[in-house]
What does this fold into?
Amino acid sequence: MAEKIVQTAGRDALGEFAPAFAHFNDDVLFGENWNDQEIDVKTRCIITVVAIMSSGITDRPLVYHLQNAKAHGVTQKEIASILTHVAFYVGWPKAWNVFNLAKEVWETGEMDLDCADPEMRAHAKQMVFPIGAPNDAFAQYFVGQSYLAPLSTEQVGVFNVTFEPGCRNNWHIHHADKGGGQILVCVAGNGFYQEWGKEAIALKPGDVVNIPEGVKHWHGAAADSWFSHLAIEVPGENGHAEWLEPVSDEDYAAL
It folds into this structure.
């Protein structure tokens, strides 16, 4: 089952002024239509971008849906091919306008994301996956700033997790009654992985880490490098993560 899409933009902007429209936007368009499982979310994002482009809208609504497409796995090469194909049907001027928006989204990450740091911008360009949004929901389990981009929420969960230099998550354990665990696929930058009672392992792009169920561990960036890995959830029964103590500054500095 895919992660349920929840939208509040209608009520946030028009809840008092136009409550009926806010209801249709948040509860029907997104709450029902976008959660229809007959079309996967990535495909739905592409269809929406094409539809809005065809209508000639090239402002914030389209930017949002370009960001959404990137967050759900549409790569820079894919969006370039999609827009080129559609240009033959809807017109060259529209294509130019949309390409300028898409270029910003795919080169800098989400346009609302603070990418003023040139090292962060350089890191984003090293990979086809988006950096995503600040990982605020799990901020209490991290030292430093991390970012999260969901790539797949169907069948197997796949998320691109990005750590600023020095950022790492707390010690934690993946539990499950049967199966479970996690796989890390390193895609950009340099980082570390460590299991309780063992030496830390340096990670670089292309490295793969298999994390069994029940093993206490942590992972994160090197002190002088941004770092991104795909976190792949291994299916299991009653799976959940147990978050424990932070990795101390002293232990981290010793690496």
Notes: The first helix runs from residue 9 to 14. DSSP finds eight helices and 15 strands in the chain.
